[in-house]
Design brief:
The protein is mostly beta strands and 583 residues long. Helix content is 7%, strand content 50%. The strands form 9 sheets. An 8-stranded mixed sheet has the order 32-31-35-29-28-37-40-39, with no helix packed on it.
Length: 583
């Protein structure tokens, strides 16, 4: 074909070979030049071959493609065994074994592809020109055919060993993605075993054994079926179960809710015991399941009618008793007069039994018909001690619910503060003026607002707490409020004055009194000093004369008075006096 010739096709067979080789050389040269030249060397233009047509075999076109793209045919994947199917017939007392192999070679080159172990002797092979090689302990196919190839191998028949005396076939399979062994001809009283594992027939009576894709040794033997232990019969079909439930519920009240800790024991009356449904309180929250052996899954379902169900499923059938822990909380108003206790339940009458338990609380009276209390923890289940440290419990038996009355008992308030000691000195002068100085030790458990009432028409001169000046707060009815901070002991000092009538020149009477406070006072020591030239001839009031040694004023004419154990009471006396030296 000449360049430029239009519509020419090379048809003559005599010129086909030379023309094809020329074109091949030309295209290969152009491909090589285009693959190695750079932009500095322009490629030669292709000849104008309009409407020309060249036909060459695909294998040669593929070689040209590989050369143009720099591919090395030797780098193609190695040949591989794609599938292996073995068939063994053990009828008639002999082993007839054959195998179908499918391999694929990815290049037109000689290579070996492993088929299996070289144990059984080969009797024939199809196709007849297939080349089988034995190297070491393996059987290979030697081929240079590109693409997929199927090979069938028949092995020499062998006599089966005595039943139960050992394996009749040791098959060493090669790694293969699809591999299987089919066995036929097994008698009714015989049992086929793969290693130590029995091989049962499929529904259609076939014995087909899938082989490991990794290859390996497979030992097949026949034994007497009567000598082998029979497999367990298949379980009956799954059936729904009816349940009864026994609960132990510990109720703990606090933080606006009643926490329920329950140990639930479900007993199946019939069926497969794989599923159960428990009715839960509609307002239950924080539902949690624990210590549930063999549980597969569980969930709390809210139904359209507002009810709640706990649905449980287990993994193992026919376990007729199930036990688990369940916790949930029900809302509770503070200081409510009743506890509404609820337990998991199953549908049906008399199928739910519950023992309710609750810790007895100080200051709260819990009551319910048929209640037993106090019950020590040692008489209850051990798990109760894990949830509560209470020392006494109340218990009552019921079904799915019970109402416990709760009554808050009144408490007696104790004194939050008390005056352990009060020391007072009152000075009386002749014109009737009175000055009283007091020092009080007050013990208090918390910050306190101490209230004191001075004598009528008196004037406060000084107030100090722990030697720090304080300005008291004036309350109604002349009460003074003195703040005491912190807790412990505080020392309060008061100084006040008042005016009495002028003392009589000869003899007379005057009334004296101290401040009044609602706090309990353990002891009041009161020294009354009278003016010089006067002497006391008598006194009466709600105080007593103190023993000697209690006068702390240094005035020999002073009166020493004492008052013990009083509350909200004003110490006072009526003092009788006379001029000293008068008889």
């Amino acid at each position: 074909m000449r360049p430029g010739q239009s519509g020419s096709v090379i048809h003559p067979a005599s010129a086909m070979t030379s023309t094809r080789l020329s074109l091949v050389c030309y295209i290969a040269m152009q491909a090589a030049v285009s693959g190695t030249s750079t932009a500095q060397t322009p490629a030669s233009p292709l000849p104008t071959l309009e409407n020309a047509e060249v036909r060459i075999p695909y294998a040669e076109l593929r070689k040209l493609w590989e050369i143009a793209h720099g591919m090395d045919p030797q780098e193609l994947p190695k040949g591989a065994l794609l599938s292996a199917e073995y068939r063994a017939d053990v009828s008639g007392g002999k082993l007839k074994l054959e195998a179908d192999f499918r391999v694929e070679s990815f290049g037109k080159r000689w290579e070996r592809i492993r088929l299996m172990g070289a144990g059984p002797a080969v009797a024939s092979v199809e196709p007849a020109d297939a080349r089988l090689l034995v190297e070491g302990e393996d059987l290979f196919l030697l081929t240079h055919t590109e693409g997929a190839t199927s090979v069938k191998v028949r092995f020499v028949e062998t006599v089966l060993p005595v039943l139960g005396s050992g394996p009749f076939l040791e098959l060493q399979s090669a790694p293969c993605a699809v591999a299987a062994l089919k066995v036929s001809g097994v008698a009714a009283k015989q049992l086929l075993k793969l290693g130590e594992q029995r091989v049962d027939a499929a529904a259609d009576g076939a014995l087909q054994i899938p082989l490991s894709p990794k290859g390996g040794k497979n030992l097949l033997s026949l034994v007497d079926a009567a000598s082998e232990p029979q497999p367990d019969p298949p379980p009956p079909p799954l059936q729904a179960s009816e349940w009864t439930v026994q609960n132990e519920v510990l109720a703990i009240e606090g933080d606006g809710e009643i926490k329920h800790h329950a140990r639930v024991r479900l007993l199946a009356v019939n069926g497969s015991a794989l599923e159960a449904t428990l009715m839960m309180p509609a307002n239950a929250r924080g539902v949690a399941l624990a210590k549930a052996d063999d549980i597969r899954d569980w969930k709390l379902v809210r139904n359209s009618d507002g009810s709640a169900e706990l649905r449980l499923r287990w993994q193992t059938r026919d376990i007729m008793e199930r036990e688990f822990r369940l916790s949930y909380a029900l809302p509770q108003l503070p200081l409510a007069t009743a506890w509404e206790l609820r337990a998991p339940a199953v549908a049906g009458e008399n199928k739910t039994k519950t023992l309710y338990m609750f810790a007895l609380q100080a200051g709260v009276e819990l009551s319910v018909p048929d209640m037993q209390s106090p019950v020590p923890p040692i008489r209850l289940s051990k798990w109760i001690a894990e949830e509560s440290k209470a020392t006494e419990f109340g218990t009552v038996s019921g079904a799915a619910s019970v109402t416990v009355a709760a009554k808050l008992l009144p408490r007696v308030d104790t004194a939050s503060a008390a005056i352990t000691k009060s020391t007072c000195t009152t000075k009386l002068v002749a014109d009737g003026s009175v000055l009283t100085e007091s020092k009080m030790e007050i013990e208090h458990q918390q910050p306190e607002r101490w209230v004191v009432v001075l004598p009528e028409n008196s004037t406060l001169l000084k107030c100090a707490v722990n030697n720090a000046p304080v300005n008291p707060i004036v309350r109604a009815a002349g009460e003074l409020e003195v703040p005491l901070t912190g807790s412990g002991k505080s020392e309060v000092q008061l100084s006040y004055t008042e005016a009495k009538g002028k003392l009589d020149a000869v003899e007379g009477q005057t009334a004296l009194e101290l401040a009044q406070t609602p706090l309990f006072i353990h002891e009041v020591l009161w020294n009354v000093e009278i003016p010089e030239g006067y002497e006391a001839v008598g006194a009466e009031g709600n105080v007593e004369f103190a023993t000697q040694g209690t006068n702390t004023s240094g005035n020999a004419a002073a009166l020493s008075l004492i008052k013990k154990l009083c509350r909200n009471e004003r110490p006072q006396i009526a003092l009788f006096y006379r001029k000293r030296g008068l008889e």
